[in-house]
Amino acid sequence: MGSIDLPKSPMVFHPEKRSAVGSRNSLAQESRDQQAEVDRLLEEEVDKVVNHVNSKLPKEVLERLDVMGGLKEKVYNYFNQNYQNMFNRYIVTTEDEMVKKVRNFIDREEMKVLTRYTPKEIAALLDEVGGTDRFNTGEIEKSIVNMYGHLQGHIQRGVNDLENLTNSLLRQKTDVGAFIRGENAYSVVKCAFKDNIYKPKAVADVKLSVNILDSELISPIFHYQVTVEYLIKDLISKHIMDNIDKEIEQLKDQRIDEGLDELNDSEIIFEKMKRVENHTSDDKENPKSNRYRYFAKTLMERIEGLRAEIDPEAFDQLNIRENLKEIIDIENIRNRGYNTAINSITSILDTSKMGYQYIENLKNTRELIIREYEDTDSNNLPDERYQIRMKYYDNAQLIEERKAYDVMIKSLEIEVQHIWDVLDMVYEDTKFWKRISDFNDLAAIYKNKIRKKIKTKTGDPVYEDIEKSWDEISFVQPAETQVEKMNRTYIFEKDKIKNRLIRMKQKLQDMYGFRYPVQRRVMEDRLQFLEREFNKFDYMINPYHIQPGLLLDVDITSIKRKKATLDGMANVLNEFLHGVSKGFQDAAFAAFSRRRSTVREDIDMHFSSTAEEEAAKEAGGMAYLDMLNTDTEPASAPEASTSKKPKAKSKGVVDAPTKKKGKRGRPRKSKSKDSGLTTI
C-alpha cells in the first residue's frame, strides 16, 4: 500500500497565502466564503452591542445619540480591525497546524505498521491471528521481567557498595547511617558501636537490631502452632477489608460523578468503620449472623482447637476438619511468610559473598541462627565475623520476655547493692584507727557545734533530721505514669547500676592504693564479673521496645581500618528489608487513588469505526454545515425532521436572554423595574 502525497502547508509566514503561518486563508476551509462569514459575525456582534446600549441607556439619552449612524459605524470598524485581525488569524493558524499534525501522524502510523514492528505490535499481531491460547507471550514476558530484575539487583548491589564506601570516606568513621538508609531507618530498635574487649584499639563490635512489624511484612508470618481456626479467621478478615475498600472506591467514583467534593482521610476512615457491621458481627451464637457469612458456623465449630498436627489415632481422611486443614496446608499459609524470609536472607548472603559455616533453622519456634563460623569462643575466632539471629515474636512471647527482663534487672540491682554494702562495711573497718577519713567523719565531729551556734539561732532543723531524697548516685526519678508502666525503659535503673560500679572501683583504689590484700582481690573479681554481665545485659534488646513481628538481631566484629564485614552486611540488610518489608506507609498516600477525570477510556486510539458511527458522524456534519450556511437558529432534532415553518431572523444574546428556572425546573417570570420589559 503506497502513501498518497497530500499537499502540505508551506513553511512560510504570509497574511494571504493559503495555509501560511499567520495567513487569513486556509486549505482546510476549501470552498468556504471567508469574507461573508466574517461580515455575518461582525454584524451579529455589532447588533448585540447596539441592542445592549438601547436596553441600558435612558430614553432621553438615546434620543440625543446618533445610534443609527456614527455609533454603529464606529463599533463595526472596531470589531472589523481587531476581532478579524487577531482572532480569525489565530483560528486559521490553529487549523493549519492541526491539519499538518494529523496528516503526518496518519502517514507515520501507516508506514510504521507496514514496514516496522515493535514487540508490542508482534504480540498484538499474534493475538489477532491465533488467539491467546495458541500464541501466548506470557511466559516470554515473565522471563524478560526476571532477567531485568536480576540485572537490576546486580546493579543495585554495585551502587550500594559505592554509596557505602563514599559515605565512609566522607564521614571518616563508621556510624549507624552506614547500615540502614533513610527509607528503613524507622525499623532500627538498637544499634551500638563499642570497642572489642580483647583488642579495643583495632577491632570494633557492632550490635544492630531491626524490628519489622506484622503490618509491614509483605508475606505475613504465623507461628507453627497457630490453629486452623485462627488462619481461616485471618483470611476472612482480609477478605472483608478488601470488600470494604472496593465499596469505598465505588463511593469515591459516585461522588465524583455527582460533582461532589472528594472524601478526606478522616471521612474515609469513618466510612470504613460504618461498613464493618455490614460484613461481620459479635453475635457468635446465631448461625445467620454476618460473622458466618463467608464461613458457616458448623464448619467453624468443627475446626475449633485444630492445630498444625493431629493425633494419628484420631486422624481420618474423610472427616470434614481434616479436609479443611488439608486446604489450608496446600495453600501453605502457615509457613509461607517465614520460609520467604529464610530464603531471602540466605540468598542475599550467598550473592553478596557473605558466606556462613553454621546455620540452625528452628522451624517450629520460627527462629533462625546464622554464624559465619561454627565456633563461639571469641579467642579462637578471627577479627572479621558476624552472627545473625532472626526470630518471629507474637504478643504472648513478648509478654513473657518482658517478665524475664524485669526479673533480670531486679537481680542485677540486688547483686550490685550487696557488694556495695560489703564494700561499705570494709571501708568502715579501715577507719578504725583514724579520726578523720572522709567528709562524714568531719561532719560528725562538728555536728553539735553546728546545732548550738547556727541552727538554734536560725531555727532551722539539723542536717541529720532532714529527709533526704537524693542518694548521691543518680538524680531523683520522676513519678511513673501509665506510659512508663506499660513501656519500661529501665534507663534510670541502668544508669544507677553503672554509676555504682564506677564509684566502687574508685573507692577500692582510694582505700588500698598500690596494696593488694585478699579483701581487695576478692571484691575486684566480683566487680569485674558483675560489670561484664551488666554490659552483656545492657547490650541486649529491651523487649518493651519490640512490637509483634520479625526481629533481626545482628552481631558484627570488624577491624576498624578494614571494615569488610561492616560494608558487606550493610548491603545485605538493606536488600533484605527491601524484599521482606513493605516499609512505612502514610495513610494519606496509601489511600490515594487516581481520579476518574484523569482515567481515559480512549487512551488506545483507533482509525476504524462502525457503520452506525460513520452514519451518525455524516448526519451530524451535514446538520452542522446547514446551520453555518443559513441565517437561522438550529432547530432540535425532532423539529428539524417534521417542522416546515418559516425560519425567523436570528437574534443576539441581548435580544434573547437566558431563561431562569425556578426550584422545580419551570421558567420563572420577572419584570424589570427600569425598562418595564417582561423577561422569560
**So how many helices?**
20
Q: Could you spell the SSE succession in H and E letters?
A: HHHHHEEHHHHHEEEHHHHHHEHHHHEE
Beta-strand percentage range: 5-15%
Number of E-type strands = 8
Tell me the span between the first and last alpha carbons.
61 Å
Poorly predicted runs: 1-7, 587-609, 631-680
Describe the main β-sheet briefly.
6 strands, antiparallel
Topology:
Elements: H1 34-56, H2 59-64, H3 67-115, H4 119-130, H5 138-171, E1 188-195, E2 203-213, H6 228-257, H7 265-276, H8 297-302, H9 320-331, H10 336-351, E3 358-362, E4 367-371, E5 385-393, H11 395-430, H12 439-445, H13 447-458, H14 482-486, H15 491-512, H16 518-539, E6 549-559, H17 564-580, H18 587-590, H19 611-629, H20 637-642, E7 670-671, E8 678-679
Walkthrough of the structure:
- The protein is of the alpha+beta class.
- It has 20 helices and eight strands.
- The protein has helices at residues 34-56, 59-64, 67-115, 119-130, 138-171, 228-257, 265-276, 297-302, 320-331, 336-351, 395-430, 439-445, 447-458, 482-486, 491-512, 518-539, 564-580, 587-590, 611-629, 637-642; strands at residues 188-195, 203-213, 358-362, 367-371, 385-393, 549-559, 670-671, 678-679.
- The strands form two sheets. Strands 1-2-6-5-4-3 form a six-stranded antiparallel β-sheet.
- Strand 7 and strand 8 (678-679) form a beta hairpin.
- The longest helix has 49 residues, at 67-115.
- The two termini are 61 Å apart.
